[in-house]
Design brief:
229 residues; alpha+beta; OB fold (Dihydrolipoamide Acetyltransferase, E2P); Ribosomal Protein S8, Chain: A, domain 1; 4-stranded antiparallel sheet
């Protein structure tokens, strides 16, 4: 007998039964066992017709080719840089992927382009079978992120921070006047006046915490406009 045991936007735990019947289709972090569907992680349920999906509430960033990430330079080698991209795996960026300019290492210090401690907006261009990550900041808009502040959120919440067709990130930028750059690896760069940076950081943390709640966009708009605390 077909039966749905959860509602859209319910929070579930690993092993919790979501549905009975082969007509229901598991997606995301949901799996089928016989004719039953279960959650395999803590997450929020999304029910769209016959598709029952579990969206994780937390998790480390697992890179994919084409991802836009923010990384922190942790080492300068002979021919490139190593960056921490909030993943179990480090990322490497070689000289040829740092700039379109020719770099003469006999005359130029590599730290002129990226120094230890710098944050870099880059793209994942390759991942080996051994999980070595290659990134590039060669073309715009990829670059060193100067000034501003970095905050960290769960990578699983990045789609909600961006919003449908970029609606939430546009609200954050337009209302605060800050420059806001979001990495798919869970790092967010905010640049503006000190008070506006703090306001946007607070709003983003609320989005992360309350991403499953309805009316979130209106609440964030009120916070940014100073109408709520």
């Amino acid at each position: 007998m077909e039966k749905l045991h959860v509602n859209d936007r319910d929070i579930v735990v690993p092993g919790e039964q979501l549905a009975d019947g082969i007509e229901y289709l598991p997606a995301g972090k949901a799996f089928r066992d016989g004719e039953k569907i279960f959650a395999c992680t803590i997450g929020i349920v999304s029910v769209k017709g016959r598709v029952v999906k579990v969206i994780p509430l937390a998790g480390r960033y697992m890179p994919k080719r084409g991802d836009v990430v923010i990384g922190k330079v942790t080492n300068i080698g002979h021919s490139g840089w190593t960056l921490d991209v909030n993943s179990p795996y480090a990322a490497d960026m070689n000289i040829g992927e740092a700039t379109t300019e020719y770099i003469d290492l006999a005359k130029t210090e590599m730290s002129r382009y990226f120094d230890i401690g710098d944050y870099v907006l880059a793209e994942v261009i390759a991942i080996s079978e051994a999980k070595f990550i290659k990134i590039s900041a060669k073309h715009k808009p990829y670059r060193r992120l100067k000034g501003g502040n970095i905050i960290q959120v769960s990578p699983t919440k990045i789609p909600r921070i961006i919003g449908k067709q970029g609606s939430m990130i546009r609200l954050l930028k337009d209302t605060s006047g800050c420059d806001v750059v979001v990495g798919q690896n869970g790092l967010v760069w905010i640049k503006g006046t000190a008070d506006k940076e703090a306001l946007v950081a607070n709003a983003i943390k609320i989005i992360e915490k309350e991403s499953h709640k309805k009316g979130l966009t209106d609440r964030i708009k009120q916070i940014l406009e100073g109408g709520a605390k």
